[in-house]
């Protein structure tokens, strides 16, 4: 088990498409997933995608137990999940904006439109099928992490670049603005 170095925006690997996992229930896969959870937890993240630690495979981890996350203290808990080869579908046409950060873009936040409700499926590290519906912040986190597998970072999704900046500045600035999402 190890805490891995997280690649930051500017690293070309973050812009690549990751490859599907073809073999499950292997010690190497278990240890990679452990490393991803350790890295995410150490950095107080709610999600991490394998390309962020330099692994070009379609693996994401996410989750947030109640009141354990310092970055998003007001959000609903999200089940702690490893999702491999994920597929995602919007559940309806509703789009909402919400503030996002990324461990590959430390200190910054942006207002990002996402589908409010989604269905997603994939596999855990043992090859067991996972299938869920999600909404709100849970749905947002899954969409953000799956974007990483396709070489997309959240600033590419921001519609109004005035809604992108350093978290410290935005915290002050946001007080006078309605926050959506
Ligand atoms: Ni991210």
What attributes characterize this protein structure?
binds nickel (II) ion, alpha+beta, 3-stranded antiparallel beta sheet, 5-stranded antiparallel beta sheet, 181 residues, 20% helix
Number of strands: 8
| Global structural class | alpha+beta
> Mean of residue pLDDT?
93
Order of helices and strands: HEEEEEEEHEH
Count of individual helical segments: 3
Strand order of the largest sheet: 1-2-3-6-7
Terminal Cα separation, in Å?
Answer: 35 Å
Strand content: 25-35%
Query: Stretches where pLDDT falls below 50 for ≥5 residues?
Result: none
How much helical structure, as a percent, in the residues? Answer: 10-25%
Major sheet summary line: 5 strands, antiparallel
Q: What is the gyration radius calculated from CA atoms?
A: 16 Å
Bound molecules: nickel (II) ion
Shape: globular
Describe what you observe in this structure:
The protein has 181 residues and is of the alpha+beta class. The chain contains 3 helices and 8 strands; from the N terminus they run αβββββββαβα. It has helices spanning 27-42, 136-149, 167-173; strands spanning 47-49, 59-64, 78-90, 95-100, 108-115, 117-123, 129-135, 164-166. The strands form 2 sheets. A 5-stranded antiparallel β-sheet has the order 1-2-3-6-7, with helices on both faces. A 3-stranded antiparallel β-sheet has the order 4-5-8. Strand 6 (117-123) and strand 7 form a beta hairpin. It is globular and about 50 Å long. It starts with 26 loop residues before the first helix and ends in an 8-residue tail after the last helix. The relative contact order is 0.18. The structure holds nickel (II) ion (NI). Nickel (II) ion binds at residues 102-104, 144, 148.
